[in-house]
Amino acid sequence: MALIKTPEEIGLIKQSSLLVGKTLAEVARHLRPGVTTRELDRIAEQFIRDHGAIPGFKGYHGYPAALCISVNSVVVHGIPNDYAIKEGDIVSVDCGVVLNGFWGDSAYTFAVGEIAPEVQMLLKHTLESLYKGIEAAVAGNRIGDIGHAVQSHVEQFGYGVVRDLVGHGLGRQLHEKPDVPNFGRKGTGPMLHEGMILAIEPMINLGTPHVVMDKDGWTIRTRDGKPSAHFEHDIVVRKGKAEILSTFSYIEEVLQSKL
Ligand code: CO
Known about the structure:
By secondary structure, the chain is α+β, with helices and mostly antiparallel strands. The chain has one domain (7-257): Creatine Amidinohydrolase, CATH 3.90.230.10. The chain contains five helices and 15 strands. The protein has helices at residues 7-30, 37-50, 117-135, 143-155, 249-258; strands at 54-55, 67-71, 74-76, 90-99, 102-111, 160-161, 167-169, 176-180, 197-200, 203-205, 211-213, 220-222, 228-230, 233-236, 243-244. The strands form four sheets. A five-stranded antiparallel beta sheet has the order 8-7-9-14-15. Strands 1, 2, 4 and 5 form a four-stranded antiparallel beta sheet that branches. A three-stranded antiparallel beta sheet has the order 3-12-11, with no helix packed on it. It is globular. The structure holds cobalt (II) ion.
């Protein structure tokens, strides 16, 4: 798999990423106290199929659902189940689709009603760190520049950067080279070239960086039980400024209209 994509390939990945953004917005429309994570997963799967795409996570290394829905102290890879969302939860929704043979992969962490102020700040600062990482994803920089940008932004607030999971290249496969850690040193790691597609996805804990996996083999939780936030964009490395392929604008429209 080539690390540098053609303009045609980038156009297709953008279409896939946009559908993920629309799917996350559809989930946002239904996200309210009382809804179960399984109901949200069914809504997303139907929406993806109605748009001619495949819910790529379903069956990926045996993963059983279209979405990963990770509530509060679950960091990532929460499997949709009969848990009913309640006021005060934070809910990370991670979605991947395959359309025309190319993946899109994006995630957003939602606040349900009023949440604790320190958790509200965790969401704000984690989202900021995603954009700091994207700012560093320019041709001529290295992978470590992205991780350093994310890490230095969030560690000033005392948060823990998850080390055990990383972002990734993206294309015909969900996980392509290179790995994109959310920590690192400036000027280290693989060089970034125009046309590389990266999924950048900071996973940031209110407490320590340590995580544990449930016996289900998927669910990743914070070891200390404190909340964790996760946002993910698909981007193209460009000279001077990265281009963001995925979008939160559909989500933001829904959240505005809910206020
Ligand atoms: Co990803």
